[in-house]
Design a protein that fits this description.
With 638 residues, the protein is an alpha/beta fold. It contains 24 helices and eleven strands. The strands form two sheets. Strands 1, 2, 3, 4, 5 and 6 form a six-stranded mixed sheet that branches. A five-stranded mixed sheet has the order 9-8-7-10-11. A hairpin with a 2-residue loop joins strand 2 and strand 3. The protein is globular and about 85 Å long. The protein starts with 5 loop residues before the first helix and ends in a 6-residue tail after the last helix.
Length: 638
């Protein structure tokens, strides 16, 4: 439990004992005004803009006479709560149609930490207590209001701490109780998310229902539902005003409602869930969506390093793919047509090269590093990561330097947060705007310039020379290894490692490795598709139909097209596709095929160097996979 108290956020100078407003707009203005006069805001107008943006997504009047307008914005200088009491009540468009009498305006900084969010969640829990609300309605002074809130907070904290040390509920105690799972989420994740969770848990306990609630709050997903939780539940309640991961609920009864319903109509929702009174959630069974499900399942199992790296790679890919294909188009005018000094010079080729190579490709390493750092340290890590990535790009340390810069910047920011955690709360507002960018950029830049860049640049140069000068045997071995990696986990970390290596080589001017990688990446779905056509008795009707789609996916360099087949029969399919891809990659390197485009599959064939033998490499790899599948798989009986 957070050591930040509600009393740290709610002070006498942010309390209004008698709101004069008679309508919603005026009430919001009064509460924003008291925060501004108390020096809690940087920009009053932007605070109002953020509050109104949240209201536009759904009223924060939750019923029972309560309204909790809230925002998480850079307009807030110091995390705060404003309280307003209206004896007459204000029409706040509440779910139950009642006027609001108790107003808690939550003003969270853009980088609100977990301690603040836990405290705000505790406030939400307090408001679920009818007697607590009654005491506040009867209060007639600021001191009394703070006393009531302080007493209730102390009560809840004393209840919660021993609870964390108790033994888990025994199997006998839960045996026979119906189990329900739920997800709660609101757009900002600092109020309704936790109120709905608390309301559902409290009512479930009263009704003798076993429940687990996942909260998608501002501090991230907490109490994540596992596959076993979902499988064992009678139904799923999704009380959310923002998108949540729904595909995992396929085949379960899912009751979807706004988050406010999770606060107001808990008994009805839980009763419906136990009776399975709701539609069964269906995910479209198109081939592409099956593939995506497999990818998401694998993502959840990846370590933090891979998650951070993939956040950088996925955000970098649009620059790589778009820029790379534009560069490839420029080559159609001639391999040196963008050079004004070359006889083949063409102005359009130069424009295309400036867009693709001079702009998109120049940004990809800074973007890679920026988003790696952002994945580690949230938004404060982005600027130091971008700067570190730019230093890597300019110094010749390339992709490897960019990856190092991203992790370096991210963990420097994690350290700075800890170092600055002891500063006075009055300085909270200057951390994201001054302290984090100043020290983050400075420290990342110094380490990159004086420690990282030169050794990594030398290593890159050595690797480039080795690739240029390696003999045919070494080239084939490299192609075989890269090809096998592309098929091994079909879009997973091993596949992405090979793909990222290929992109790095394009950036360094070595075009052979990525040609082998793309040939090998097309082979698994193409080989499976060919097998479903030639050896129909080895596949079900559904697999044969999916095989038609796999032709398109393979031709488009979407290796993940093989996932559904591999998931259904891994011991036979994976060895077959790995062998085929290894052959395709090895042959591509043997024939000296080159590829300047990072993506596109067969659609970028016009820019492939030695394209005829490139096609031979893909066809041979495809045949190897198809023949091995015929040998290894047994005939199916439908």
């Amino acid at each position: 439990m957070s050591n930040i108290r509600i009393a740290d956020l709610l002070k006498e100078d942010t309390i209004i004992t008698k709101l004069t407003a008679t309508n919603k707009g005026d009430a919001l203005d009064e509460l924003i005004g008291v925060l501004d006069r108390a020096g809690r805001l940087r920009d009053k107008a932007k605070m109002k803009e953020a509050i109104l943006a949240r209201e536009a997504q759904g009223s924060t009047g939750i019923g029972e006479g309560i309204a909790i307008p809230h925002a998480k914005t850079a307009a807030v200088k110091i995390p705060s709560i404003a309280f307003g009491l209206s004896s007459e009540g204000v029409d706040f468009e509440s779910l139950d149609g009642q006027k609001a009498h108790l107003f808690f305006m939550i003003a969270a900084t853009e980088d609100a930490n977990q301690a603040h969010l836990e405290t705000l969640a505790l406030l939400s829990q307090m408001l679920m207590d009818e007697s607590f609300r009654g005491q506040l309605l009867q209060a007639n002074s600021k001191e009394q209001i703070l006393s009531i809130i302080g007493a209730k907070e102390k009560e809840l904290r004393s209840e919660e701490e021993p609870a964390s040390q108790t033994e888990p509920v025994s199997q006998n105690e839960t045996q026979g109780r119906k189990k329900v799972v739920a997800v709660t989420a609101c757009p900002t994740g600092i109020a309704h998310t936790y109120m709905a969770a608390d309301a559902l848990k409290k009512k479930a306990d009263e009704l003798g229902i076993q429940i687990k609630v996942e909260t998608n709050g501002s501090g991230g997903v907490k109490n994540l539902l596992t596959a076993d939780d979902i499988r064992d539940a009678e139904a799923v309640i999704v009380a959310a005003d923002k998108q949540v991961d729904m595909e995992r609920f396929a085949g379960k009864v899912v009751i979807e409602v706004p988050v406010a319903e999770g606060i107001r109509n808990t008994e009805s929702l839980l009763t419906r869930a136990v009776k399975q009174d709701g539609p069964v959630f269906q995910v479209s069974q198109s081939y592409k969506e099956k593939m995506q499900q497999g990818k998401e399942t694998n993502k959840g199992k990846q370590p933090a390093f891979y998650k951070h790296l993939m956040n950088g790679v996925s955000n970098m890919l649009p620059f790589v793919v778009g820029g790379g294909i534009i560069i490839a188009i420029s080559f159609m005018f001639g391999i040196n047509a963008s050079d004004p000094k070359d006889p083949s010079f063409h102005p359009l080729a130069k424009a295309l090269m400036d867009i693709g190579g001079g702009s998109a490709f120049k940004l990809m390493i800074p973007v890679l590093a920026g988003f790696i750092a952002m994945s580690i340290a949230d938004r404060p890590g982005f600027a130091p990561g971008m700067v570190g990535g730019l230093i890597a790009a300019n110094s010749g340390s390339g992709f490897l330097g960019g990856i190092i810069a991203g992790f370096l910047a991210g963990y420097i920011l994690v350290g700075l947060r800890k170092a600055f955690s002891g500063l006075p709360e009055s300085l909270e507002g200057i951390k994201p705007m001054l302290l984090y960018p100043l020290f983050g950029i400075l420290l990342t830049g110094l380490v990159m310039i004086y420690i990282i860049s030169d050794p990594v640049a030398s290593a890159n140069a050595a690797l480039g020379e080795w690739l240029k000068n390696m003999n045919a045997g070494n080239a084939v071995v490299l192609g075989i290894v890269l090809g096998a990696m592309m098929a091994f986990d079909m879009g997973g970390p091993v596949n992405k490692a090979a793909f990222t290596f290929g992109i790095a080589m394009i950036a360094e001017g070595n075009l052979m490795p990525h040609a082998a990688i793309m040939a090998a990446g097309m082979t698994p779905p193409l080989g499976i598709a060919l097998a479903t056509t030639l050896f129909k008795k080895k596949f079900t009707t559904e697999e044969r139909q999916a095989g038609k789609t796999a032709y398109v996916l393979g031709a488009s360099f979407i290796t993940e097209g093989a996932i559904p087949f591999a998931a259904a029969d891994p011991s036979r399919v994976i060895p077959s596709i790995v062998a085929g891809s290894a052959v395709a990659g090895g042959l591509s390197m043997l024939f000296g095929c080159t590829l300047p485009a990072p993506h596109g599959g067969l659609f970028v064939l016009p820019v492939v160097g030695n394209w005829a033998m490139y096609l031979v490499s893909i066809v041979v790899g495809t045949l190897v996979t198809a023949i091995l599948l015929n040998i290894l798989k047994k005939e199916v009986t439908e």
